[in-house]
């Protein structure tokens, strides 16, 4: 969980897209999911004995999840540092960079975008700022080598290109 990685007053970097996605999730939770679960609880209460009512228990559990997620998103917004990656001008890798790497051993290339933790999706080549690879890349310039400790061992990359969009 992010809370364990970030101090309570520390800013959480996120892209404009990441902020938009969290806003959409928050809207869905408050305007769609919350009313549905409240109606389900009311219906389950109308059935009588709550001690043996599985529908009531399930709805209350779902409500707890929804309310917890709403609080989590609001806390992230309170600490968010929203960054428009299109405005970044740097010759070094920083948050929001799209970095093309060449694996030294195989010579294969891969491109990753460094994004906020909530935006990370390895299948879409988006890595979270707190990931080992992103932490290894921060501050590097084109042509520099990067050593990453991966589950399968150390992997050496060369930074081929850095861009911001």
What does this protein look like?
The structure is a single chain. The protein is of the alpha/beta class and 165 residues long. The chain folds into two domains: 6-83, Transcription elongation factor, GreA/GreB, N-terminal domain (Helix Hairpins, Orthogonal Bundle); 85-163, Chitinase A, domain 3 (Roll), CATH 3.10.50. 38% of the residues lie in helices and 25% in strands. The protein has three helices and seven strands; from the N terminus they run βααββββαββ. It has helices at 16-46, 54-79, 132-137; strands at 12-15, 80-83, 98-103, 109-115, 126-128, 145-150, 153-163. The strands form two sheets. A five-stranded mixed sheet has the order 5-4-3-7-6. Helix 1 packs antiparallel against helix 2 (54-79). The longest helix has 31 residues, at 16-46. The two termini are 28 Å apart. Residues 1-6 have low confidence and may be disordered.
């Amino acid at each position: 969980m992010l809370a364990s990685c970030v101090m309570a007053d520390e800013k959480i970097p996120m892209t404009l897209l990441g902020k938009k996605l969290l806003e959409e999730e928050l809207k869905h939770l408050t305007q769609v999911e919350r009313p549905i679960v409240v109606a389900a609880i009311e219906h389950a209460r109308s059935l009588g004995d709550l001690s043996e009512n599985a529908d009531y228990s399930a709805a209350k559990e779902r409500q707890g999840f929804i309310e917890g997620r709403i609080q989590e998103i609001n806390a992230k917004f309170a600490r968010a540092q929203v960054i428009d990656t299109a405005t970044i001008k740097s010759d070094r890798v920083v948050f929001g960079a799209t970095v093309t790497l060449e694996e030294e051993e195989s010579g294969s290339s891969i491109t990753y975008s460094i994004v906020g933790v909530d935006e990370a999706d390895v299948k879409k080549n988006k890595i979270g700022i707190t990931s080992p690879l992103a932490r290894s890349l921060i501050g590097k310039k084109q042509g520099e080598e990067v050593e990453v400790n991966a589950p399968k061992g150390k992997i050496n990359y060369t930074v081929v290109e850095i861009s911001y969009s």
